[in-house]
């Protein structure tokens, strides 16, 4: 069985069983053909007509995605539309036609290969992930220009599982849910556009599976487990029955949990567990409400910018934060400030390549070095906080100064909004996301300067065990239950209890939560409630007042970077203020 069990990255949960359809869609083989001088402008006109037709088709796919996954996810297709509206890109193709007498499809191929090589050579994980968008657009354009269709996809007549080297967002929504029941690809991660759409549509998906196209034969029966990130090839009747039984048990558990969703989350010894939502995508707000989440313990904000060509405005962010808060009246919404960097840099940022971006310029470091971007987000949170309960949480904290500087920025923006007569809160609670060993070891000091602590065990486990959680080869080594991780969690819990702070821990095995004295949990992991009820819980008290250490800090005059940001700021200041 070990040779038949393939391991990748689970990007959308669920189990699907069906035959494989192998999609080998690469760039079509375009013959090298030149045209007569008098035909050159005709080829340019063919290019422009194809651009109009493909834009119209992508708009149709966007409408279908909006219907199936929601308007926020549908905006993913804006990236491909923007490529077709890029004047420099299109002018470059037209110049190739005019200067070399190429056909429209050959000129388009040349230009796409040039851009693809540039993106592939960069160290930006975000640009590499957008290669799927570029390739999908190129295939669509060239096939249209050559009057070809994808015969493999046209043959889909029953519920099938798509297997490809990479899957773009268009392929995800092109078929009805009854035709394509799961996705498997060699490329991609949880932040890929196709993965985001699959998750929103409830379609199981496994990505990052090495050599999937070579290891899986067309028509082979597969069991795709998007929760575990596995694909079982040619399963036996017993294995199929076992998979269906697992899926049935999961569905039965869901129904059982639905039946008790209104009951309080209390352990057998009377300790109450606070259940809050973990919202990555806007469509998860309704799910968290349905499961009676007492607010949102983690509202990610990166998708406000990573799927768009420009930064969101203050008004857009304030409206979104308020919308989420109004969905949970009387309960807090914890907004995690931009966790940019690593694999999440938007097009609006121009960051130099880094040898190890996950240990480099990211998260709070980016925010403090880009104060105007950070201030905009802070002002949006303060404006929303005038109507709903908003808290801010800082990711990847490793130094006390990062908390102090953030609190100063919050105070300054609160005063600025008040002077301007804009309806906003003067301040909001500021917490720390403990996701590095440094923060865990310093949790007692962080508890003195933060209003609350929240442990992000994905990164904490990754950094503690030196295991890349996106590496399929090391998947069995990524264990949040490792004793070293549990000891760090206990340090955080002890620090929170000693400081009378609330510690919220976002962990896949919520039962450990109560055992280490952590008081928040995720409603999406409903089966964990039963385990938590059997554990010994230690309730943590309410936060006290806010005695704060203050330090004098100088500003970078050109852009206003404060304190701890200023030291790192020197390295980029010369370039930024030329």
Key terms for this structure?
578 residues; disordered C terminus; 17 strands; 46% helix; 13% strand; TIM Barrel; 25 helices
Kindly describe this structure.
The chain contains 25 helices and 17 strands. The protein has three domains: 5-23 and 151-234, 3-Layer(bba) Sandwich (Glucose Oxidase, domain 1); 37-145, Orthogonal Bundle (Enzyme I, Chain A, domain 2), CATH 1.10.274.10; 266-533, TIM Barrel (Alpha-Beta Barrel), CATH 3.20.20. Helices cover 46% and strands 13% of the residues. The radius of gyration is 25 Å and the shape is globular. α10 links the parallel β5 and β6 (205-207). Strands 1-8-7-3-4-5-6-2 form an eight-stranded mixed beta sheet. Strands 10-11-12-13-14-15-16 form a seven-stranded parallel beta sheet. It is an alpha/beta fold.
What does the secondary structure layout of this molecule look like, with pairings?
Elements: E1 5-7, E2 9-12, E3 15-23, H1 40-69, H2 71-74, H3 78-84, H4 87-100, H5 104-121, H6 125-129, H7 131-145, H8 151-154, E4 160-164, H9 169-174, E5 180-185, H10 193-201, E6 205-207, H11 212-215, E7 221-225, E8 230-233, H12 237-259, E9 274-275, E10 277-279, H13 284-290, E11 296-299, H14 303-306, H15 314-326, E12 333-336, H16 364-369, H17 371-385, E13 390-394, H18 400-419, E14 430-434, H19 437-441, H20 443-449, E15 452-456, H21 457-465, H22 483-498, E16 502-506, H23 511-515, E17 520-521, H24 528-533, H25 563-576
Parallel strand pairs: 3-4, 4-5, 5-6, 9-17, 10-11, 11-12, 12-13, 13-14, 14-15, 15-16
Antiparallel strand pairs: 1-8, 2-6, 3-7, 7-8
Helix pairs in contact: 1-3, 1-7, 4-5, 5-7, 15-17, 17-18, 20-22
